[in-house]
Predict the 3D structure of the following.
Amino acid sequence: MTPTPPPTADAPTLTAPPPVLALDRLTRRYGTLTAVDDVSLKLAPGARHAVIGPNGAGKTTLLNLIAGTDRPDHGTIALDGADITRKPTAKRSRLGIARSFQQPSVIAELSVLENVVLAGWPHHPQHRGAWRRPSRYRLHKESASRHLETVGLADLAHRPAATLSHGRRRMLDLAAALAGNPRLLLLDEPAAGLTDGDIGRLLGIIGALPSDVAVVLVEHHVEVVAELATSVTVLAAGKVLVDGPTQEVLAHPEVREAYHGTAPSTGPDEPRARTIPTVCPSPTDARG
Amino acid sequence: MELLDAHLVPAVDGVAFGLLLFVVAAGLSLAFGTAGVLNLSHGTLYAIGAYTGAELSDGTWGGLALGLAAGTAAACVAGAGLSAATAPLARRGHLAQALLTFGLALIGGDLLIQFFGADELPVRVPEALDSSVNLLGHRYPAYRLCFIVMAVLLAAFGTWVLTRTRMGAAVRAAADDPQMLAATGHSPRAVHTGVLAAAGALAGAAGVLGAPIIGPGPGTSETVLMLSLVVVVLGGLRSLWATFFAAVAVGEVQTLGVSVAPELAPYLLFAAMAAVLVLRSRFAEPTEAGAGHGSEGSGPDPVARLRGLLAGRLPGPKRPSVRLGRPPGHDRAPAWSSRLPGRAAWWQAAPLLVLLVVLIALPALLDAYSISLAGSALALGLLAISVTVLTGYAGLPTLGQTAPFAVGAYATANLADAGWTVGPVQIVLSALAAAAFAAVVGPAVIRARGTTVLMITLAIGELTGAVVNQLKSVTGGADGLVGFPATRALWGGEGMLEESELYNYALVVAVVAVALTLLVLHSPAGKLLTGTRGAEARMRASGHPVGRYLLVAHVCAGALAGVAGSLMVTVQQYLSPADVGFEIAAFALLAVVIGGTTSVIGALLGAGLIVATRDWVAGSWPGHGPLLLGVLFVATVYVLPRGLAGLRSGGPGGGGESGRPSGTTGAPGTPGAPGISGDPGGPRGSHGSDSAAAEEQPPSVPAPTRAGKVSP
């Protein structure tokens, strides 16, 4: 649960369990643009960590680096102490990293249930031979149904995913991520475009995750961050601006300036963000 | 020094050839990169220029100038016409446009032969140039040196326009972000027309000037198209310089390579291409993954960037054609894997059963010639199904399935020659050989997406064709193979000679192959492919080894194509390179498109229609088979945007024999029949802005739902 100190001041980890995720001096450049610049981070099991920052700060790139859809130019990524820097995305997923996408990624032609079945397939204890054995495939459907209930889509299980509204697609994407029974869950702006009711549900789902699942949350809604995260990293132009416990970071003058002074311009769904305080308690209420 | 001396002439020839290819390929690359049109009629534009130039050049400077002006203008007008023809299809994806241009190429080729005759036209150059000059002690045609100068000027002028002028800036902007260009007050439509007209002019000018090098004749357009495609694939749309070096390299291989190592030249091209593709996919891998899920997609590799661009321009959700007002009861309809075949399942199977009955009855209804045609149609149908598996399920639109098809065909012919005449043995061994081939070339194919796959597979198919022509000991070269022993249906049987016998054999093999394919596609394995095509990023992020799935699909499709090739040899009892040529690949793709990309029965019917058009209808109007087929292509693209399966979408389980689960929900117009209305590979995994998706609903869909959209 220790927030992540900069690499130089490596906190004593004698009593703490080994980190689920350890990023060491991660750097990713696109041509002359350095999207992620020398970022280090350690997450204990069960950590709830948020990454915030203005647009273009490198938040999504950081998630992509962790998930494996992008490769760092420098630095290493370790999961449970094992180096996964060169492992492909699919392998990382099987090792326990799941993610949601900024643009919810659903298979429009398949039913909602089948989307989750496919997402959970490689993680199911009986995944071998499922493609030709109907009985195994039925087992997969049962566990997929449970995940759909979690996100509140059970009623729509047999609809084609193409018919879902944007918010429900996001929930389906989340169900697909949960279907992997991950040890590390990466959420890329999970609250963007959701209704207040769905945000409430989202908070409930993440709150109810097993206590050993670590979560990395990229989010613009400060209120959601305050509610969910115990520690926060603020990125600006790829660099770590501040990190530490949520309350401290959110009270940090530079962060306040970024989020309250020159705040919005975070995309089409931003105006909706202003309605959130009705759902979220004040930042002081954050879990500690 | 002596070595250099001996090969000086071919080396300089190579430069001239390469420059010619550069000018042509630059036009192709321009049309593809900025207007988004994979122009398969680009070679025809060259041929227009070449024919016009040859006709008007009378050996004087004035004649050449007149020819140049007229040829360029004619090809330019043709390019503009092409723009008008493809513009309405811009929202339907690149596959539709590529097919349309291929149809137009067939029509254009036929018309050119009408006007100018089927013989190669002699080309006269101005007398001043019709001589030899002394080049380091060698006699060298003056015209070629002059051509080198002119081509360099042309290339320099084009580069200058593109990089230094406002117009060029607009064109480059159109490649990057057409919407932004429109917002700055330039009409993307005008840019589209201008780019295609300019590409046409380039091809036309190259045709007039290059006529003495690649002369006007019936095979011109195909040769030019293939070589320039190879150049574009090798150059990788990276930059004009990369295209330039690729063009000169190809030119040198075609001239110097032939003179140094005549036997190896075709393989050189093949090897160079394979090496470049594999190397590039190595480097591009992480970027591709990044572009795959619709993130910025502006990685350093232009091909990946282009891919991202295509993906951004053609968001996936445009496919859904779900209508409002669906009866609520259908939501609870059993999903795909309900074990008892319900009424919906019978609905799906019914057309296949009807077709089967008709096919069984066929020998009693037709004369011997027609029956043998029907046998060929079955073989082509299997090939089309293998294209369906790749195009419709795996999302890899392919023009290169004739390569494993050829492997299977030549394997069977050689097996028969060696005395292995038992049918099942031939089939299995041919399938294995084709599968092995597909496994080898697979890695180059499965890393690309969308139209890039079309180009890569096209090149693979074409280069395989070149190898077939070259490897005379195995393939008989251009003469083909004939006179090998007839196949025996089973062990201990007699060789089959009767048409009806052969037809029945083909039918049994086809039924078994189709049944196996349907079984696999209907199993959850088919769903893995659907998921991979629909949301690759999600599949990867969920731990699915997507590349492995695609490779397996590629190998299985290759095996199926191998079976098709084996069947074709058995049925027609001879084999020539034309049987495994580019036309057949295009026919297979057309058959698939006629059927509606994910429909197995559609592919079979499409193949039947094509064979009927080519061999029956054209029989009553000799020499115009290509014209009729071209018309068929064009008509299909315009009239049947979703193929035959689209026609059925009003009924329960529309197009449902494809194994799509949504079909069994019994919902009318369920999503998932991409047809050619969606580039099956282009939008993979991209989920662009919903507002853009809503705009891009195909016009044929009556009431696209907006329920799923956040209003913009």
Summary: Confidence is low (pLDDT under 50) at residues 4-13, 262-288 of chain A. The first strand of chain A starts at residue 21 and ends at 30. Chain A is about 35% helix and 20% strand.
